[in-house]
Amino acid sequence: MLKKKLLWSIVLVITMVLAACSGSGKSNGEEASGSIGEEVDYKIIGIEPGAGIMQATDTALKEYENLADWEVVESSSAAMASELQKAYEDEEPIIVTGWTPHWKFAKFDLKYLEDPKGVYGEAEVIQTLVRQGLKDEQPNAYTVLDQFFWTPDDMAQVMVEIQDGADPVEAASAWVEDNSDKVAEWTSGAEKVDGEKIKLAYVAWDSEIASTNVVAKVLESIGYEVELLQLDAGPMFAAIAEGDADGMVAAWLPGTHAAYMEEYGDKVEDLGPNLEGAKIGLVVPAYMDVDSIEDLK
User: Fold this and answer.
1) What Rg do the C-alpha atoms of the chain give, in angstroms?
2) Which CATH number does 41-122+282-295 carry?
3) What is the DSSP code (8-state) at residue 294?
4) Of 135, 60, 103, 89, nearest to 292 (Cα)?
5) Which Pfam family is one of this chain's hits (predicted)?
6) Cβ count within 10 A of residue 229
7) What is the DSSP letter of 155?
8) Domain 125-277 has CATH 3.10.105.10
9) With a threshold of 0.70, does the pTM exceed it?
10) Numbers of helices and strands, H then E, in the chain
11) Are 171 and 162 in contact (CB under 8 A)?
12) Where, residue-wise, is CATH 3.10.105.10 in the chain?
């Protein structure tokens, strides 16, 4: 009889311990399964203020009721990428403003959040704009800029090299050397010049650093002396419109830079797309269990 009581006592103790552990585990699970908003402190990591994607994200905060208590954190393209990399390496949740082409999609397994309200628009193109009068004054540079066209994969090759530590000029030079057939298409009909100067404006996004340096190397290959002028998006458009720069290959349309194109479009010459299939939106690591902006709570 005594043995039976002792046995039942042991069973009871074990049962209570297991129940306690189970309850504790449930509590931790509830904490771990908190809302996405709680996990990221209701913050979306952005880039430079004034960028089109930041304007679109401000609109998203207004259009999506579930984002009423959220904020977009102003930073820079480099700072955003750094925050993303740190979170990704630790498998921590993070939401960033993102766009393609960008090296981060080659480095990390990422996904765009679905945008049911269409705030971020459809696929975009990157267009080449030049100052009025460039065709008559510098026809050979105009020819190269007009014929410049490449793919997101082309751009990604240069961006990844830069991200891996290559100097942008060196990465661009290597790409130009390795893609002589494509470069020949851009320079077809353009004559050699002797040290004529040309100024290209760009915004310090990884994609535009890549494309602008590549175009600069191509122009240098036919004798131009190229100056690169780094500006924010608005001043970049203004520089072309006012003749302070000769051209750029960095206009994201129809969405990202729509406001600037509306303001300056009649003062510049639009040479059309130099890359198709660009996209902007909110981006998260693929390991996060969220698929839509509407899922952000």
Assistant:
1) 26
2) 3.40.190.100
3) G
4) 60
5) OpuAC
6) 16
7) H
8) yes
9) yes
10) 13, 9
11) yes
12) 125-277
173 token code pair:
């030079």
One digit per residue, the tens of pLDDT, for the chain of length 297 reads 444 444 444 444 444 434 444 433 332 333 345 799 999 999 999 998 888 899 999 999 999 999 999 999 999 988 999 999 999 999 999 999 999 999 999 889 999 999 999 999 888 999 999 999 999 999 999 999 999 999 999 999 999 999 999 999 999 999 999 999 999 999 999 999 999 999 999 999 999 999 999 999 999 999 999 999 999 999 999 999 999 999 999 999 998 899 999 999 999 999 999 999 999 999 999 999 999 999 998
With contact defined as beta carbons under 8 Å apart, do 257 and 229 qualify? Answer: no
Intervals of CATH 3.40.190.100 along the chain: 41-122+282-295
Best CA proximity match to 146, nearest among 254, 257, 246:
246
Query: How far apart are alpha carbons 200 and 209 in whole angstroms?
Result: 11
Residue given tokens 């131009």 in the structure block: 224
Instruction: Give the integer Cα–Cα distance in Å for 244 and 235.
Output: 10
Is 246 strand, coil or helix?
coil
- Output phi, psi for 254, to 5 deg: -90, -5
